[in-house]
Amino acid sequence: MYVVSHTLKPVSAEELGHFEQQHSVSLPASYRQWLEQYGEGTYSGWMNIQRPDQEVLKPFADYDFWMHTDDTPVSQHQLKECISIGSSVDGDFLAIHPDMEGLLWLPRHDEQITLWKHLELEFGDTLDRIYSEYYHQAAPVTTRYYEPWNEQRNHTFYHLQDNVDGTSIQQLSSLCQAQFKWDLVIENEYTCKLFMASIGGYLRFNYAYGREIALFYEEMHETRDTTDYDIEQFLLAHHCKIMN
């Protein structure tokens, strides 16, 4: 797995152990190992892995957000007892319940809650399985990556302007791939992400929109990394405008 950031902020075993004692719950071992190694962050662009939180799902117990029948893993009242451990970029929740074995998937755009049992896998493998079975398609990327959250993360957005030579965003992406040495390239018909360890981030081309480009980098010093500066100058020279 490719780790985007230079700076990891692991969650201590002591903190997680205290949470387990305080709330009489056993956190999934693979989830604990992940937080202790990498800390909080975003997995493969779709899943936010977060500290356990017993407050997130409590408000949902007051609304008929999901269907609750005899076959539903948790009742509406039990939502107050669920502990959130992550959320997707689409607003789905991943949670556990103190009295249940497995992971609860509470979707944003579906009424059915799913309980995933016997997932004795590495946590990333578990997330891949949930994604492929829930969305009925393969994992979103062939090479997994993780974006740890930290205070050094920064970004700049660019807009590709109309130009005389008619360079498309796909053509600009190809030029950029040839211009710089990238550690990882993930590309499909909708987007392209070019990862570089020296900036602690990546350059994203939004093919679906056709104009938007975003540079994500890690602000380690008062002045930006030279390579980061070179990437910006390349974009500006190819009809990209910085967006405020």
Account of the protein in words:
- It contains five helices and 14 strands.
- It has 244 residues and is of the alpha+beta class.
- A hairpin with a 7-residue loop joins β6 (103-106) and β7.
- The longest helix is centred in the middle third of the chain and has 13 residues, at 123-135.
- The radius of gyration is 21 Å and the shape is elongated.
- The mean pLDDT is 91.
Number of strands: 14
Number of continuous helical runs? 5
Mean pLDDT metric: 91
3D shape: elongated
SSE layout and pairing:
Blueprint: E1 2-3, H1 13-23, H2 29-38, E2 41-43, E3 47-53, E4 83-88, E5 93-96, E6 103-106, E7 114-116, H3 123-135, E8 145-148, E9 153-160, H4 169-179, E10 184-187, E11 191-196, E12 201-206, E13 212-218, H5 226-237, E14 240-243
Parallel strand pairs: 1-8
Antiparallel strand pairs: 2-3, 2-8, 3-4, 4-5, 5-6, 6-7, 9-13, 9-14, 10-11, 11-12, 12-13
Question: What features would you highlight for this structure?
Answer:
single chain, 8-stranded mixed sheet, 28% strand, alpha+beta, 244 residues, 6-stranded antiparallel sheet, 14 strands
Write a brief caption for the model.
The protein is α+β, with helices and mostly antiparallel strands and 244 residues long. It has helices at residues 13-23, 29-38, 123-135, 169-179, 226-237; strands at 2-3, 41-43, 47-53, 83-88, 93-96, 103-106, 114-116, 145-148, 153-160, 184-187, 191-196, 201-206, 212-218, 240-243. Strands 1-8-2-3-4-5-6-7 form an eight-stranded mixed β-sheet, covered by helices on one side.
